[in-house]
């Protein structure tokens, strides 16, 4: 009877899941109309019911069910100036950042979708198991525990089949089509605004550019084909003249708003990408419609045909269902064997529809790059802007490096040399009067000179490590790995030498990433992989730390980006909360053939003990 009572309690708890579904559905409807603050709390409210079910199942059956959810996002951290930073946006209070992170965390968690399906199905299953417990007793409870573990327990990542992958590609193609419909809508709105209210046209264009950016981003995520933003750089704010007025053309204004608005309108109207975006909104929906409609039509025809042959025949006469196949010129279905033959035909139609989906998706992305990619003028303008920013970053990095070297020399080596000079004066004064004291001071001088030499070597390593010159990049990183408190595994190699400046840039970037993994990431194991392909040096640093790293918040990461910017390199950081963290350093460079090791100098070698 105890098993029956417990099964009944679990069934009653399961019936409350339908209440959670109603609340979540209402929150989703509010989300669709713009009220976004109810959706995440509704899902978290439902998670309390799931957690209670896991606890009771574990208590009554011994089947422990771990939490399936991703780790919760970290709390926002206040910066030194009192602001909270999220990307490029600053906030006085942390509640908005906290809410947006939790919303993203819940929405992107794979366990959220499984939990919603469980809430819909579980009440019926729980009632069935409760009735079965009248006969089977504890066996019914154990069966319900396995059922709950399947839905609410963590699942290992499974490799998707080729058929599932192609089905996903078809869905992604349909997603690009929906984005193109949004582009069409914004293009029509922009045309209406341009004719009826030209003053609002720049704002409408900038809003439409966010949708075009969405198409570029998703096309790159789904196909790997990068579509750069084609827009000309935004004009700088107007600067006041010596008399305090702001000039636009031949007119003067006492406030900057009118020149700013006119500059903005001219920037929008003269940018060819504005009109190319509108043209893309008219062309892409038609082109993508031609791409996905045949595949979707074949998939629907095949799946509906299979369902109608083996399920629909239970409710409808076979002669009626046969018309679904006769409409495309196939023979009528008259019996079981003809139904089996048509089943194979329907399956072949589904497979035939999914076969070209990779090509269709790539073709859609290429068409998007043709219409939404940058023109030659936009590329030149972006290149000039990038070079200007890179020059500024390199100048700042060089100035900071010079200040560091100057500080280290002034506070370290210079102080030691001054102290040694004073001690030499004391030795000269004592050498005739107290030879024993003079010998003791000379011994101290010897120790001080050795320490000064060690500090000088450390300073030289910080400027350009000798091991990097002697052994190359991969061996220099292996030397750093040996000194790191983490378990560092270095994989891959570079068959040759790149330019010394590029080697130094990549070396210091890896050192900074290893230091961040040990200091901030709380990692235990790090993997550093080297790869050189088609003129691009790629270094991947992966750690098993807590994750949550953000390039916008870390001064060290920003320093890496400045160093790489001087060589047209880039840093890609992927660090979800809970880890792992993956940093990819990419630097374009030329590979020289391997050269003989540089002989070690007794003054700079890392293994020299010459004083």
From TrEMBL:
- Entries under CDD domains matching the protein: HATPase_UhpB-NarQ-NarX-like
Please tell me whether the keyword ATP-binding is annotated for this protein: yes
Reaction(s) catalyzed by this protein? ATP + protein L-histidine = ADP + protein N-phospho-L-histidine
Residue span(s) of domain Putative sensor: 176-372
Polar residues compositional bias, start-end: 601-611
Q: Locate the transmembrane regions by residue number.
A: 25-46, 120-141, 174-201, 279-312, 332-355
UniProt-recorded name of the protein: histidine kinase
């Amino acid at each position: 009877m105890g098993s029956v009572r417990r099964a009944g309690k679990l069934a009653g708890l399961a019936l409350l899941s339908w209440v959670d579904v109603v609340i979540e559905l209402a929150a989703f409807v509010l989300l669709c109309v713009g009220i976004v603050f109810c959706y995440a709390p509704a899902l978290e409210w439902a998670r309390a019911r799931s957690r209670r079910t896991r606890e009771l199942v574990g208590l009554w059956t011994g089947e422990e069910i771990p939490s399936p959810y991703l780790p919760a996002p970290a709390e926002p951290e206040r910066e030194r100036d009192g602001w909270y930073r999220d990307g490029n946006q600053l906030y006085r209070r942390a509640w908005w950042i906290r809410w947006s992170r939790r919303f993203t965390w819940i929405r992107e968690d794979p366990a959220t979708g499984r939990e919603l399906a469980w809430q819909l199905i579980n009440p019926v299953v729980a009632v069935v198991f409760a009735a079965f417990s009248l006969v089977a007793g504890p066996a019914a409870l154990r069966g319900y525990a396995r059922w709950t573990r399947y839905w609410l327990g963590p699942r290992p990542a499974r490799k998707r089949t080729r058929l599932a992958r192609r089905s996903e590609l078809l869905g992604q193609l349909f997603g690009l089509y929906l984005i193109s419909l949004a582009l069409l809508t914004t293009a029509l709105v922009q045309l209406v605004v341009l004719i009826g209210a030209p003053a609002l046209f720049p704002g409408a264009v900038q809003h439409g550019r966010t949708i075009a950016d969405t198409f570029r981003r998703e096309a790159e995520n789904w196909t790997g084909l990068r579509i750069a933003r084609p827009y000309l750089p935004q004009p700088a704010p107007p600067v006041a003249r010596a008399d305090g007025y702001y000039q636009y053309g031949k007119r003067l204004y006492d406030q900057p708003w009118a020149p700013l608005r006119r500059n903005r309108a001219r920037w929008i109207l003269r940018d060819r990408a504005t009109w190319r975006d509108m043209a893309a909104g008219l062309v892409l929906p038609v082109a993508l419609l031609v791409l996905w409609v045949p595949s979707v039509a074949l998939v629907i025809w095949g799946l509906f045909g299979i369902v109608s042959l083996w399920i629909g025949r239970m409710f409808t006469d076979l002669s009626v269902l046969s018309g679904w196949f006769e409409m495309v010129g196939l023979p009528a279905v008259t019996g079981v064997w003809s139904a089996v033959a048509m089943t194979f035909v329907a399956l072949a139609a589904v497979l035939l529809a999914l076969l070209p989906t990779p090509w269709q998706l790539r073709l859609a992305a290429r068409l998007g790059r043709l219409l939404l990619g940058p023109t030659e003028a936009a590329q030149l303008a972006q290149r000039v802007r990038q070079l200007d920013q890179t020059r500024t970053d390199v100048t700042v990095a060089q100035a900071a490096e010079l200040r560091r070297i100057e500080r280290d020399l002034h506070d370290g080596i210079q102080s030691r040399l001054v102290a040694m000079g004073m001690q030499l004066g004391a030795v000269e004064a004592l050498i005739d009067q107290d030879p024993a004291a003079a010998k003791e001071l000379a011994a101290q001088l010897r120790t001080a000179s050795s320490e000064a030499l060690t500090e000088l070597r450390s300073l030289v390593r910080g400027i350009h490590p000798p091991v990097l010159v002697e052994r190359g990049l991969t061996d220099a990183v292996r030397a750093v790995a040996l000194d790191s408190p983490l378990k560092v595994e270095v994989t891959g190699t570079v068959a040759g030498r790149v330019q010394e400046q590029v080697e130094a840039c990549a070396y210091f970037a890896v050192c900074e990433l290893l230091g961040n993994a040990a200091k901030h990431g709380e990692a235990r194991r790090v993997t550093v992989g080297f790869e050189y392909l088609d003129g691009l040096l790629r270094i991947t640093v992966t750690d098993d730390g807590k994750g949550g790293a953000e390039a916008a918040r870390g001064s060290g990461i920003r320093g890496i980006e400045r160093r790489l910017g001087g060589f047209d390199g880039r840093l890609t950081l992927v660090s979800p909360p809970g880890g792992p963290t993956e940093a990819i350093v990419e630097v374009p460079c030329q590979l020289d053939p391997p050269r003989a090791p540089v002989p070690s100098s007794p003054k700079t070698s890392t293994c020299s003990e010459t004083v």
